[in-house]
Amino acid sequence: MHKKELSKIGKQSTLSDIILGGQDGLVNVLGVILGVAAATSNYKVIIAAGMAATFAESISMAAVALTSKMAERDHYYSELEREKREIKEMPTLEKKEIRDIYQAKGFKGKMLDGIVEQITSNNEQWLKLMMKEELELTEIKNKDIYKGSFVVGFSALIGSFVPLTPFFLLPISSAIICSLTVSSIVLFFIGIYKAKSTVGSPLKTGIQMVLIGMGAALAGYYIGHLFGQ
Questions:
Q1: Which residues of 43-80 are buried (b: 16+ CB within 10 A; e: fewer)?
Q2: Quick one: how far is CA 175 from the chain centroid?
Q3: For 162-200, what is each residue's pLDDT tens digit?
Q4: What does pTM read for this prediction?
């Protein structure tokens, strides 16, 4: 794989981590803080709940990203060892799998024979190709695991402060309106950026993001309102 392709994959992965953490932090803290604000008018309780949710969410998201990536890494190496054994113990069957892969790509005859011979003449090359083409698995390095978990956690922290910040600056009633407005705008632009960076309609994705956020906000608000009553 070329360096440009690896760089592109890395950027897409980082973008995905930023969106995942930022959106999750914003939506969850928005729901929590509006729920608490609906249940009580005690300013300290609202801020304390918002701060607790902010840091618990960011740490939790980072931990989930870390453990899930570690699980993917462990699965990759487990499959790698299995493929190594199969190449050693069942080389004829594994060669046939290489032949089937390239035959499906449209190669045939002497060209196909040459490709199979070339690939299977080098065990390391053979193993890498089996991991990529047959199992569709990519190696996850430790530095990428820790970088990804940090990005997710930090993005969740930043996203969480979007709905929380107005409560530091404004009276509770005004803060609720400002928090909803600012959160909706941020979610909308996250959706647009996500669609432009990947695929999909920017407007549609932006609206979907807003609806998800407002759904969480309404759920939190009405539950808080119910207990407040």
A1: eeebeebbbebbeebbeebbebbbeebeeebeebeeeb
A2: 30
A3: 999 999 999 988 988 999 899 999 989 888 887 777 667
A4: 0.75
